[in-house]
Amino acid sequence: MDDLIRLMKTLADPTRLTLFKLILTDELCVCELQSLLGISQPAVSQHMAKLKAAGLVRERRAGSWTYYKGDLAEVTARLGAVSAFLAADPGDLPEIADLAQKCKCMDRVGMCGPETKGVVIE
């Protein structure tokens, strides 16, 4: 679950998502990304470091330049893992199985009051 959270946090930032989309199409260096987005070189580098730490980009060095390319296969596989996690039965997920069991045993009427009586949540 930690890996899925890291992926979603990484892609949730609008600048990082934009950078990632740009490098999915073309291999670009930091100075090109800086020019395209109008942000500082350190900001681009920090965003790229987070994308790299999440396993979403590959880098290639050429002299003093570093070129980045987004890994579409990796992000597709990881988003598939997010989809599978969301579709799974909560009781089958070790991270939240205990919570799922507690949820089944809760006295909703006693806990939430009589207005929940007869309410079905799907």
Structural overview:
The chain is mainly alpha-helical and 122 residues long. The protein has a domain at 2-73: Orthogonal Bundle (Arc Repressor Mutant, subunit A). Helices cover 61% and strands 11% of the residues. It has helices at 2-12, 14-25, 30-37, 41-53, 72-87, 97-105, 108-112, and strands spanning 28-29, 57-62, 65-70. A hairpin with a 2-residue loop joins strand 2 and strand 3 (65-70). The longest helix has 16 residues, at 72-87.
What's the CATH H-level homologous superfamily of the domain at 2-73? Winged helix-like DNA-binding domain superfamily/Winged helix DNA-binding domain
Spatial separation of the terminal alpha carbons: 24 Å
- The overall average pLDDT, rounded, is 85
Instruction: Based on the coordinates given, report the CATH architecture of the domain at 2-73.
Output: Orthogonal Bundle
The largest sheet is: 3 strands, antiparallel
- Strands, count: 3
Structural class: mainly alpha
User: Helix proportion of residues, in percent?
Assistant: 55-70%
> Which outline best applies?
elongated
What is the CATH topology descriptor of the domain at 2-73? Arc Repressor Mutant, subunit A
Range of strand content: 5-15%
What is the CATH class name of the domain at 2-73?
Mainly Alpha
Question: Helical region count?
Answer: 7
Quaternary organization = single chain
Order of helices and strands: HHEHHEEHHH
Radius of gyration: 21 Å
Arrangement of strands in the largest sheet: 1-3-2
> Which residue ranges are poorly predicted, with pLDDT under 50 across at least 5 consecutive positions?
none
